[in-house]
## 1
Amino acid sequence: MTEQPEQQRHSFERGTDGPKVIVAGVDGSPSSLRAAAYASGLARRQNALLALVYVQPLVPAGAALGAPVAGTTEEIAEELIAEIRQAAERVKGIFEVRWEFHTFRGDPYNGLVTAADELTADAVVVGASESAGHRFVGSVAVRLVKAGRWPVTVVP
């Protein structure tokens, strides 16, 4: 048996026969839910796994001043899972989509990058930012596109 050159011994190759894993960032905002719906359609048509990712924000020590912020972000994650399950049940038998829900901690950009890397994403779908301040700082979507590591679809 001949040994393959280093370049040919890939355990993972993006986009060869269509996407296998599509990551969609969700945070409960209307644009993120539209992005999840769009990604769901892509996953269904491509027979890909839809990985829905919620990134729980990190709260700096003392910033919450005793407020139960960690519990609040857990509640958001639970509400998102419940909403996604309800939507999946409504279309069961009509549209079949394989999906998983993942929670990561950190800022949205780094959380989505980590998720896409760990899940070996072939594509990332996010909603357009609804914050006016992102015109100056740069939105998560723009930063993901600039990273240039996956095809990124931004849903309005």
## 2
Amino acid sequence: MIVGVGTDLVDVARFGASLRRTPGLADRLFSPAERTTSAGTPRAARSLAARFAAKEAAAKALGAPAGYRLTDCEVLSAADGRPDLRVTGRLAEAAVALEVTTWHVSLSHDGGTACAFVVAEHR
């Protein structure tokens, strides 16, 4: 049963400019695993923008619970390359309360925009 759905769009150029303008912003928004690829190289701004959109979309799927932080959601890559979510903190509390057992995540970037679609499911 679908518990919640969230989506978000991010302007890649604007997001990239924010990362360049604000030293340490990427460190405050993303874990080390989110900031680097499986090969250990830094992720491009478009990829980070899509991950930022997924964090927002995950919060929306849970009703944007009061007190959540963007760092309560980590967007990782599964062994097969698909994006996967790990929630902690306030988002994890909300997910437990809503009995979320499975997350479905889709990330995309094209034409200067990054987007994410998140489905929270109870099986």
## 3
Amino acid sequence: MTDQFAHLTPGLDSPSMGGNAITPSDSTDLPAPVRAVTIGTAAGVIKYVHARTGATCTTGPLPVGQHSIWARRILATGTTATGLTGWQ
């Protein structure tokens, strides 16, 4: 199969290039920055380190579902949402 979009550069509004389960950590960055996070198990708050600025951010309460979060780390301390998947 030929990828007819191979010549294009993906942007932040492009479909994801892959996803991984997230284990929140206060000391370890994700394998690659994510631009969206799916909460799959329990709604809650996500505390994260912004991928570009390095600022620590905290969401308000989020429902189960997909949310636009550009992060290089999801922090264990302060994150109450569970069943997280990150999308590159």
## 4
Amino acid sequence: MTAAPSTVTIRPLGTADPAAINTLLDEAFGVDRRRRTAYRIRDGMTALPALSFAAFDETERLIGSLQCWPVALDFQTPLVLVGPVAVVPDLQRGGVGRIMMTRMIEAAESTRADPLVLIGDPEYYGRFFGFEAHWTKDWSVPGPVERRRLLARVPEGLTLPATGHLGPRLHNPGL
């Protein structure tokens, strides 16, 4: 691991080269990443431009990407699936992912986006971003998942159904 660059610029994901994004995702998660449950949950969906970001270093090299997807619980309760959150391997744990997550949450709050869900480390995403497994403990997903890693971040005053199946959203809003 190398420390994060002194300058990290966050821009909409659409400003990054799609081939560079795919290379980054392969480097961060492996070429078999498409077999993961998260890919099944968002199958057929288009990433939400207003909530998807790219991180660049001072040389304009792509060093991170964060994608968000329209999904739903039982095709009725709209949610946003966060991820993948990818950082080039030699910069992982250097703060780039946290910068992108902070930007995405700010954008989600300012646009009053639907509640956020993700599959990730509860100690990290809970501590820094308020995600918790309380909401998701009895949800089903289209593939294997460690129950403790299926997390949601719900705006104050909202609630989510206790049960249901998480999958693609019938209507893709394309925020």
